[in-house]
Amino acid sequence: MTARHPQLHLVVSDERGNIYDDPDLLMLCRRGAQWGLPRPDEVMPLPPESEFFLLPGRQAVGLDPESGRPSCPGGEARLAVAAFAAPGHTISAHPVYESGPEAPLLPLFSYGAVGFAEGRFYLCARRVDTDPRQEFGNVPRARIERGARDLLRAYSGNRLVRHILENCVARYDCPAARNFALGRYEAPLPTARACNARCVGCISAQEKDSPVAATPQCRLAFTPDPAEIVEVMRIHAGRELVAPVFSFGQGCEGDPLTNAELLRESIALYRAEGGRGTVNCNTNASRPAAVAALAEAGLTSLRVSLNSARPELYHKYYRPLDYSLDDVRRSICEARGRGVWVSLNLLFFPGVTDTEEELEALARLAGEDGVSMIQWRNLNIDPEWYFRLMNGGGGESGGLALSPSMGLGRFMKRLRKLCPWLRYGYFNPYLGEKARIAAPAPGTWSMPEPKSLSDGNGSGDGGAEEG
């Protein structure tokens, strides 16, 4: 049975950052062009370790329950407020606000709709993974810093160790880097300085004419050698004794496949000495031959970043330089055909991703190419800017339609019905050295009959969708 939550009030802020609830207005949420009250199945208590964001130049909008119309609050507290969901959670709606003429472009974070009732905050989101690997509330900061100091002292000659600890931990507070300092879960392996895409929402580099004023991270300034990479893997495997995961492709670098030979040599060296654990590559998957070579060297899993399974929307966001979505799909097939577990790092955006057209396109890609998992990640970007870009800005899309949102829960349920083998989650799973794969082999799946697309009464959320 779906949990029922109290009627939620609008959350607002004054210019000094003081957050209030407005008892006279109800919370509204936005999915693309749609404004409405939150659905009962999409509201949850604000998860611990989430953060509040004030949205400058944007006036909060709520629903007046007496008139049934959208309304702006009176008084000094008028700024819109959003919440950045803790890892493992995917937002299902953005806050409703009216942007003023001087409203700056929002930084590259995700902005979840937040409300308040009965002494607590609520968020339009759902937990998609119960793995605690990026929960740090009970980890003393001193323990992380002590782990970083010990590793720096022991491996001062390894540039990659220094980068992960001095930059990613100390400057960016990267969760993966903190876990490396703690010797647990998944270790980052940044390697690439270059990229062959120009993502609108790239968090490590932007072109000079980009309206994005700053990126959350700076790109890697050197290229590690295979010995440095393998030493990081050995360090982590010697401390995470149960389920070590190693991941090429991090936020502080370009795309790792631009340095494919370095990755291939490093993986081969690690496996040749009996290196255990799951070796993963987070990538745009632009180079099928490189993916095949990594699979032959001992790659366990491939996480493919994707904002849309439709070429028009994919190319608007990634702006690839020397590849297309067809190349991405060929890479997925190369990996699946060689026994590599393929996850989609699906950059979910309410009102764009959760549509009928996207459901069909995503199901076809997952089924026809043999995808094993969907990682439901939030797209970190200014909501109005991205929606205008995907919607064509009033005609630039060549007639591409964005149909109404069906909601995250219903979208997940219907996709699972079409592709019942799919695993849902948020993080790269530990799979051992070689994954057991239930996804169909490329070219063996066909779309179910149209009657199978229905999800019954259309109101359910499909239950808990966790990793």
* Helix/strand class: alpha/beta
SS elements, strand count: 21
Strand content: 15-25%
CATH level 4 superfamily of the largest domain:
Aldolase class I
Oligomer: single chain
CA-based gyration radius: 22 Å
CATH structural fold name of the largest domain? TIM Barrel
Largest sheet: 9 strands, antiparallel
Number of domains: 2
Report the principal-axis shape.
Answer: globular
CATH class of the largest domain: Alpha Beta
Helix content: 25-40%
Mean pLDDT: 92
- Low-confidence runs of at least 5 consecutive residues: 393-399, 456-467
Number of discrete helical segments: 11
At CATH level 2, the architecture of the largest domain is Alpha-Beta Barrel
- Euclidean distance between termini CA atoms: 21 Å
Care to describe what's here?
The protein is α/β, with parallel strands linked by helices and 467 residues long. It folds into 2 domains: 9-127, no CATH class; 141-453, Aldolase class I (TIM Barrel, Alpha-Beta Barrel), CATH 3.20.20.70. The protein is built from 11 helices and 21 strands. It has helices at residues 141-154, 159-169, 175-182, 226-239, 260-272, 288-297, 311-318, 325-337, 356-369, 383-390, 408-418; strands at residues 9-13, 19-26, 29-31, 34-36, 43-45, 51-60, 62-64, 69-71, 79-84, 89-91, 94-95, 97-99, 114-117, 120-127, 186-189, 245-248, 278-283, 301-306, 341-348, 373-378, 423-425. Strands 1, 2, 5, 6, 9, 10, 12, 13 and 14 form a 9-stranded antiparallel sheet that branches. It has a 7-stranded parallel sheet with strand order 15-16-17-18-19-20-21. Helix 2 packs across helix 3 (175-182). The chain starts with 8 loop residues before the first strand and ends in a 42-residue tail after the last strand.
